[in-house]
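pinging the channel bc i need a second pair of eyes. not urgent but kinda urgent?? the chain im working w is below, pasted from the shared doc
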Amino acid sequence: MVVRNIGIDAIAPKNECNDDKCAWHGTLSVRGNILQGKVVSAKARKTAVIKRELLHYLRKYERYERRHSKISAYNPECISAKEGDIVTVAECRPLSKTKHFVVIEKVVG
């Protein structure tokens, strides 16, 4: 199977899959936000929960506070990110009630 050019500077996976919702081997187009985070859960089938750490500045106290957000992302079989991996996710069309992102590469893992 041929790896598509998704228009993002990311490394394509070495494995192949026949998944239609894969950004590399299927027909899913990616657009919008590109984020990085750590996988905290990969228990659900083809789903990874990514946690992002953010720093928010409080002007009154002249300090930063830590915040975090969790994103549900589609985890294709060719990438198959596990817990603890640092991944890059890209925004796509809504795939389910909570999934609006797809994992496009493993940065560390």
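so The chain has a mean pLDDT of 93. and Residues 73 and 101 are 5 Å apart (CA to CA). — does that match what u expected or am i reading it wrong
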